[in-house]
Amino acid sequence: MKSNLEWFRTFKSIYETGTMSGAAKQLYVSQPGIGLHLNALEAYTGYPLFERTPRKMIPTEKGKLLYQQMINSLSCMEDLEARFQYKSGKERATLSVGMCVETFQQILEKHIPDLTFNLIMQFGNTNELIQSLENGSADLILTTSETSNNNLIYTPFAVERFVVVAGVNTDISGFNRLKKNKESIKKWLKSQLWYSTASDMDVLNLFWERNFDERPNFLPNYIVPNKFSIIRCLSRGEGIAILPDFLCKEAIDNKKVFKIWEGYTPLENTLYFGKRKQSILMDEIKHIENILLSEF
To answer: Do 191 and 166 meet the contact criterion of CB atoms below 8 Å apart?
Structure first.
């Protein structure tokens, strides 16, 4: 097990402020993150470094010894860091945000140069993002589900609808003549070239079950890295895919792909902002939320 310099920086801050909340404010990180660093350092040293009381973190004898042995070295490192960062201007808060990579590329990426605080992006599926929020490594996430954790707040802010889109060279004249004949539509869809990503197979299954009362008995022809890869491929050739409407809206407006069907029963997801009830980064969180709200 390797140590991490941030663990010692966190330890120093707790020692000097006397509380985990004081350390969180001093280091501009979340309190759960402070707890994770301290737990990791105690596991690394093999000893409890503080006695936890309701009002104060009291250093143990091992904690006092560690502080005396590392304070000079850590102070030298911080002085060196300050000298090299002097031209950066005033200290900036750091916000960690989690969402799927396509949402970031479509909506948030273009706003980053205008931010007045540091940003760390995390990408993953819904379960991974919720876990990041719960363990303190993320301050704000975009998710399609909620949990019952009393320390977290989930706020619905948008609805994404999945639609069937066709490539620019796809002959959709036959589909347009099918009207609402379920068996004919199912047969036509199965006869096409399909695109998907490895992580979106559940979307295809859910869409198919909702509209045809069965699971699809075929596999996509092309499994590509992400949804933007699908859009780029469809804009050059034939094929179909199921995509979130907000991700392909620009391509549809520019006639690079065509929306051909929303299904008999549309497949939709409610999108939530997930955050902790208490955070020293609420101003920064609200700024990101406002950006996302304006884009949706």
So the answer is: no
Same domain, 47 and 119: no
275 shares a domain with 153: yes
Per the structure, the complete domain to which residue 188 belongs is given by: 160-268
Helix (H, G, I), strand (E, B) or coil at 223: strand
Rounded to an integer, what distance in angstroms lies between the CA atom of residue 13 and that of residue 158? 39
Per-residue pLDDT of the chain (296 residues; tens, 9 = 90+): 566 788 888 999 999 999 988 888 888 888 888 888 898 889 888 889 999 888 899 999 988 988 888 888 887 777 666 655 544 456 788 899 999 988 999 899 999 999 999 998 989 888 889 988 888 888 999 999 988 888 899 999 999 999 999 999 998 888 877 767 888 899 999 999 999 998 888 899 999 999 999 999 989 999 998 899 999 999 999 999 999 998 899 999 999 999 999 988 899 999 999 999 888 899 999 999 999 999 88
